[in-house]
Automatic annotation (TrEMBL):
Superkingdom of this protein's organism: Bacteria
GO MF term (any one): acyltransferase activity, transferring groups other than amino-acyl groups
InterPro entries: Acyl_CoA_acyltransferase (IPR016181), GNAT_dom (IPR000182)
Record bears the keyword Chaperone: no
Protein name (Swiss-Prot/TrEMBL): RimJ/RimL family protein N-acetyltransferase
Length: 184
């Protein structure tokens, strides 16, 4: 039996498929969860959700900057997504973002998806540091990153506006050495 670098105990990271539109469209109904991930936007139509899913499924593959579905290992159902961005090949750093649908919170999906993504970026793509920005009001994500061993490196005060107020953004970082000590 072969093993995949993209499969953990609970989740598999996979490419987006057109049929994923329904799950992600449903996740977007929870305004608080959407706000915690990035920013709240007006509702999308079913037609727009389907079109966007098709466009994402057909995007060209980039080895360093990508977006993947977090799916359950048992039935391949979408529970969220993880993406890499802010790629800096000169300094060997990257950032990532993660979102898990509200019905799937607190099941270990996010932590496993992050660990799998970091392993790929560190050991296959030769990056040396991962960074994540977390909104100061997102207590669950702040706790998750601390639990995973990320180091709080800084705070941008009042740099994010949501729900009628300005909020801080907290920068977390993890080096390849910190990852290796904990997970390899």
């Amino acid at each position: 039996m072969t093993s995949s670098a993209w499969v953990g105990e609970r989740v598999r990271l996979r490419a987006k498929e057109p049929e994923d539109w329904e799950a992600f469209h449903a996740f977007d109904e929870d305004s608080d969860a959407v706000r915690s991930g990035w920013r709240l936007t007006p509702p999308a139509s079913v037609a727009r959700a389907k079109k966007t899913a098709i466009e994402h499924a057909e995007e060209e593959l980039d080895l360093d900057e990508f977006s993947l579905v977090i799916a359950t290992r048992t039935d391949n159902a979408p529970v969220g997504s993880i993406n890499t961005h802010a790629i800096d090949r000169v300094h060997g750093t990257f950032s990532y973002g993660i979102a898990v649908g509200t019905p799937h919170h607190r099941k270990g999906y996010a932590s496993e998806a992050i660990v799998l993504t970091l392993r790929y970026m560190f050991f296959e793509r030769r990056f040396q540091k991962a960074e994540a920005w977390v909104y100061g009001y997102n207590d669950a994500s702040l706790a998750l990153h601390r639990r995973l061993g990320f180091v709080e490196e800084g705070r941008r005060r009042r740099s994010h506006y949501a729900d009628g107020r300005y909020h801080d953004e907290v920068l977390f970082g993890m080096t390849i050495e910190e990852y290796t000590e904990r997970y390899a």
